[in-house]
Design a protein that fits this description.
Layout: E1 9-10, E2 21-22, H1 29-37, H2 42-48, H3 54-75
Antiparallel strand pairs: 1-2
């Protein structure tokens, strides 16, 4: 599993209520995943949020996949 997201996803209790954010920005992993789930493409997200990169979006997906894997392991 690619865990390179660890360099991009930050958690700061004083920012966005401690939700995982991208590179210390106020954009959360949840925000990006919600945009993707709503049908936005990575190109559209980057166009709307110029501080984000395609690598940031990939990091959000990797983070979500790793978190899901951990939840499955805990449930087993």
């Amino acid at each position: 599993m690619d865990q390179s997201y660890r360099d991009r996803i930050t958690i700061d209790p004083g920012k966005r209520s401690g939700h995982p954010c991208i590179r210390g920005l106020r954009i959360t992993v949840y925000d990006v995943l919600s945009y993707l789930a709503a049908g936005m493409t990575p190109d559209e997200i980057v166009a709307d949020f110029p501080l984000l990169t395609h690598a940031d979006i990939q990091a959000c997906l990797s983070y979500a996949a790793d978190r899901e894997r951990q939840l499955v392991l805990l449930a087993a």
